[in-house]
Sequence to fold (339 residues):
Amino acid sequence: MTTSDFWQSVDARLAQGEPVFIAIVAAATRGSPGTPGARLLLGRDGMIEGTIGGGIMERTLLDEARARLDAGPAPPQLVRQVHRRNTPDASGLICAGEQHNLTAVLDPRSDLAPIQQFCRALADQDAHCSTLAIDKTSLHCSKAGPDPAGTLRLEQPGDDWHYFEESLNRRRLAIIGGGHCGLALARLAADIGYHIDVFDTRAGVFDDAAWPVGVARHVPDTYAEVAHAIHHPDFTRVVVMTTAVDGDIEALAALAPLQWPWLGVMGSRAKIDHIHKTLAAQGMPDAQRERIHGPIGLEMKSDTPPEIAVSIMAQLLAAEPRATEGESARRRQTEHNAR
Fold:
């Protein structure tokens, strides 16, 4: 489930006056089945949503969660789980890696207001950014960010720990062109958890009921306008797939001079060559044209819109930054200090 779905579900249960158990993977090393940001909740009705890695670790956690729900609200806890045998803090899994699970039973009386504030910020990605902070005593929300340290972080694992989660979704995708392939890509990216903006000069394409809820749909007069209509460009990957090559060129002429994490255009090699020649003739410098990826999508069977969406999404995921060796070493040292 996406971050927004999770907190909206928590909000709905708290608003009904029910306590809710939550678990969030606050930190993890490579090999751990629970990745940072993975999460689950357990309601008083027994409904489980999400996962923090599965297996015996999760079954044990859920048994504890039921007991904690019966006992009532209690301070948040941070628990280290090591996925190896015969070691302190063993999770029961043997897949290697470790993770820190943050758990809490949220109380409607004290936690509803900050959760609602955070949900409002999650819903309005173009407004202010808010940060949800949890420590061993409480949970609160405040306006802050974007934080250079990232959207989710755990500070000082151990007795005096602090967990922070930012409302701004930094996994952002702008799709220029709302045709069949744009719709298929938007649906897949929404399931993965991206914030999505789609631009098309044809208002009618957005009448299709298949567009996912939450996808922001825009109808510019020209594709030249989209470059400056995209919020948070530092975090936005852009895919150009308009209905005609002239629309692609118009959009790319405005987009390529700006710095995007990733910019690509859909089409055959012949079409991509034509686009580059046209942009060069228009005076676009080589350095700007070199920022344009194309043809986009992994080399695989991709004939239908859903297949094309899978090939493009796989390429985007492969291009997402991974933890560097330095970051991995820092995490290992942090975890060692917490033992």
Summary: Residues 323-339 have pLDDT under 50 and may be disordered.
